[in-house]
């Protein structure tokens, strides 16, 4: 009996194996889609296995989006060299990889490169030697090798944009030769000049950025964060179809923004992170912002500050007439809001749609001071929600009471995303009576603030969506993913 059962099981196994998918019979278009999720080095290794996989490795689907991290690539090459059965030099291996990349470069549409060593620059040269389908480019540099590679990367970028005129999206981070000048002089490239660059621009001691009139028709998004710090930005004036521009505060320019906003610019991102210098000069005053808004009524300004510089919270940068649509703070240290932030927010009650304040630190906030309503930040956040009725996204890192959360949701029914960490909620109601706008809201708060279950139920009802406070890991996963483009 047992032998019959065994024979039956073996027959079933053979039948199952015979009906399993044969990878060699998989359509190339499907296999190419599978390979699109692999790193460039994995594509290279797979192309060496058999003829059918080599053909699939050069399918357009496999090369549409290419991400190359120099640091990760170096580790992968080292590991592969250690695992190879036959002895092969790293130089030979690298040469074959470069040839492989050059062969597939004409298929690349979206390219993202983080430079780590000189080999990454050679890889970039091979990729861009025949990049006829490239529409989106993102470049950044690993900080440990910054000074050594800076000028070589600049030369590569310049050469690329001399021959590549139809690129649509360019994002360049921390690729710069030199630092922002400490004090702006009359000859500075950041001061107002001619609306359209004249013949004297070529004689300037400041080099121009490698984008200009030849890219005007196609270029829609340009990010130069901590990049081209000593370059004249006047060439950007030619980019009359530009819809999105991201620069540092030091690069703000009245004439530039008036010209671009009057044409097509709709979103201006002002970005500062730990690699951005301190900022002491008033780049654009309030009268100039009024002029910019008059010429570009659809312009929206988005500020992302991942630094602890004082100007990031003061009127050096923030002017009442700035059309501020979003303000994101990602502080390196815990900072309590000065009341000034709450005060200047009232100037943007007609434009502000997003206010996010979260920290680089994932530790639980020390709540020693958060025992009473007045010692916490509840009142400032309540005022922001009350004054800015167009607010759709609200996130704070400060501890808030459960009662304050309900009150904020009642005061602003336009909020759709209200992100709060579950370890930052204090289940209490210590809001003074004079803060409540009416008796109905006060009773609502008093009925639903006591337990997580009641709080979740009421918040979901008010926001008209399922609401839950987030765990610490989910909180940072959502925010880091949403703002990853700001680096």
In total, the number of strands is 14
Uncertain stretches of 5 or more adjacent residues: 177-203
- Identify the quaternary structure here: single chain
Strand order of the largest sheet: 1-2-3-4-5-6-7-8-9-10-11-13
Q: Could you give a short description of this structure?
A:
The protein is of the alpha/beta class. It is 37% helix and 14% strand.
Give structural notes:
The structure is a single chain. With 487 residues, the protein is an alpha/beta fold. Helix content is 37%, strand content 14%. It has 17 helices and 14 strands. It has helices at 2-19, 28-35, 40-46, 51-57, 60-63, 70-83, 90-104, 118-128, 146-163, 254-263, 286-295, 339-345, 378-387, 402-411, 439-448, 452-463, 472-482; strands at 65-69, 110-115, 136-141, 169-173, 221-225, 244-247, 267-272, 300-305, 324-331, 354-359, 393-395, 400-401, 417-419, 425-426. The chain has a 12-stranded parallel sheet with strand order 1-2-3-4-5-6-7-8-9-10-11-13. Helix 7 (90-104) runs parallel beside helix 8, helix 13 runs parallel beside helix 14 (402-411) and helix 14 runs antiparallel to helix 15 (439-448). The longest helix has 18 residues, at 2-19. The protein is globular.
């Amino acid at each position: 009996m047992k032998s019959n059962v065994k024979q039956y099981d073996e027959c079933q196994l053979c039948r199952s194996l015979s009906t399993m998918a044969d990878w060699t019979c998989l359509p190339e278009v499907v296999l190419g889609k599978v390979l699109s999720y692999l790193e460039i080095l994995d594509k290279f290794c797979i192309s060496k296995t058999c003829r059918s996989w080599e053909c699939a490795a050069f399918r357009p689907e496999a090369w549409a989006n290419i991400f190359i991290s120099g640091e990760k690539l170096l580790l992968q090459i080292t590991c592969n060299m250690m695992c190879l059965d036959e002895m092969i030099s790293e130089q030979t291996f690298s040469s074959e990889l470069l040839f492989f990349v050059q062969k597939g470069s004409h298929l690349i549409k979206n390219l993202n490169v983080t430079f780590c060593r000189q080999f990454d620059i050679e890889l970039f040269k091979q990729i861009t030697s025949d990049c006829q389908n490239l529409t989106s480019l993102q470049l950044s540099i690993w900080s440990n090798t910054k000074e050594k590679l800076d000028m070589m990367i600049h030369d590569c970028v310049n050469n690329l944009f001399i021959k590549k005129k139809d690129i649509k999206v360019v994002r360049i981070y921390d690729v710069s030769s030199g630092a922002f000048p400490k004090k702006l002089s009359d000859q500075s490239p950041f001061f107002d000049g001619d609306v359209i660059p004249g013949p004297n621009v070529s004689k300037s001691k400041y080099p121009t950025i490698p984008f200009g009139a030849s890219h005007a028709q196609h270029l829609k998004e340009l990010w130069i964060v901590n990049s081209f710090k000593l370059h004249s930005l006047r060439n950007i004036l030619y980019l009359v179809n530009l819809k999105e521009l991201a620069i540092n505060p030091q690069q703000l320019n009245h004439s530039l923004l008036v010209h671009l906003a009057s044409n097509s610019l709709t979103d201006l991102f002002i970005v500062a992170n730990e690699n951005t210098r301190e900022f002491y000069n008033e780049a654009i005053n309030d009268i100039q912002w009024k002029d910019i808004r008059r010429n570009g009524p659809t312009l929206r300004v988005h500020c992302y500050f991942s630094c602890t510089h004082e100007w990031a919270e003061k009127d050096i940068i923030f002017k009442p007439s700035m059309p501020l649509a979003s303000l994101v703070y990602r502080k390196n240290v815990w900072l309590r809001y000065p009341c000034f932030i709450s005060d200047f927010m009232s100037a943007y009650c007609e434009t502000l749609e997003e206010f996010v304040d979260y920290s680089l630190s994932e530790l639980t906030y020390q709540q020693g001071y958060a025992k009473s309503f007045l010692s916490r930040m509840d009142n400032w956040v309540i005022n922001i929600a009350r004054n800015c009725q167009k607010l759709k996204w609200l996130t704070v890192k400060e501890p808030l009471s459960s009662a304050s959360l309900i009150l904020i949701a009642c005061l602003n029914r336009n909020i759709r995303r209200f992100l709060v960490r579950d370890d930052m909620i204090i289940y209490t109601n210590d809001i003074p009576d004079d803060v409540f706008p009416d008796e109905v809201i006060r009773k609502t708060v008093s009925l639903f603030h006591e337990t997580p279950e009641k709080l979740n139920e009421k918040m979901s009802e008010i926001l008209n969506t399922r609401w839950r406070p987030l765990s610490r890991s989910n909180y940072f996963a959502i925010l880091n993913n949403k703002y990853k483009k700001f680096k």
